[in-house]
Amino acid sequence: MTHVALAFEVPGGWLEEKDATIMTVMQTLMGGGGSFSSGGPGKGMHSRLYLRVLNKYHSVHSFSAFSNVYDNSGLFGIYLTTPSDFVAKAVDVAISELIAIATPGEVTEVELKRAKNSTISSVLMNLESRVIVAEDIGRQLLTYGCRKPIDYFLQCMDDMTVDDIMAFARKLLSSKPTMASCGDVDKVPAYDYVCKRLR
């Protein structure tokens, strides 16, 4: 098996609240998962990567969007696992999916609405846990010097448009990617090839 992560820096992190919120929704929009997911609520069965990749390429074992946000930086990317003889195609598909969300007309209003609703639901369910609320209070105090009400972040998500997603994706793709791989890596495409495909 070959594992590949293709990621981009998100400058600003939580200090750039709008971008951090867009990135969170974009991760839900792209989604993905494992090829052996049993489905059901919250499994991402309607996400772009599930419908456009996992349902189409049966050699792919997992294919997921990921994001990590820190105070003044963050990462957004795709992580995939596949047999080594399919890894070149899988990396090419990952690049195509990243380019697609930066392309006008590729992301629909229905997809974005579903991703926003799913993200809002996840945030609200997480905030039912006292442990997560305590962690959220601590992080916000350290980052902003105060705790912003949940309605503030929900409004940011509600105001988000397809154009916001596209502009954010274009900004990501204009920077140099970071790529890491492990396992049977002989057939992983060269970094220079990946950079040229993203131009």
Automatic annotation (TrEMBL):
Molecular function terms, GO-annotated: metal ion binding
Domain of life: Eukaryota
SUPFAM superfamilies (UniProt xref): LuxS/MPP-like metallohydrolase
InterPro entries, per the entry: Metalloenz_LuxS/M16, MPP/UQCRC_Complex, Peptidase_M16_C
Domain Peptidase M16 C-terminal: 2-118
Function of the protein: Substrate recognition and binding subunit of the essential mitochondrial processing protease (MPP), which cleaves the mitochondrial sequence off newly imported precursors proteins.
Family indicated by similarity: Belongs to the peptidase M16 family.
Protein name as it appears in the record: Peptidase M16 C-terminal domain-containing protein
